[in-house]
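Write out this protein's structure.
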Amino acid sequence: MSKTFYSGGFLYDPALKEALLHKRDDQTKNNPNRWAFFGGLSKKGEKPAHTFKREVQEELGIKLDSVAIQELTDYFNPDFNIHRYVFYAKVKMSRNLHLNEGEKYEWFTLREAMKLNLTKRTRQDLDLFRRNLSTD
């Protein structure tokens, strides 16, 4: 993969049926003060799942087990003229995370999450997850 791409997603606790999202702060260029996934742009030579894993570690200070990471979808995002890869990682809920980026993080049921001021693509991707992969 030679082109830069976006890779992001969320943590999901299947036992509680809750997803971890973060609220972007007002200093960010894109989608300030909106709820979104953890993620960012790829570095040279990275594969999409590795980018997601690296971004979660940078933003939350945790290392995800590769077997916990599941691909949700990927598509070209015309809003930013870049390919978007979306993942989720099945984990047990933790409130002892250290947010290094954004305003705050919080666990939400999928129903609660859909009521938030989500970014356009976060809403689209969470809805896909909700409809196809979970029991809400």
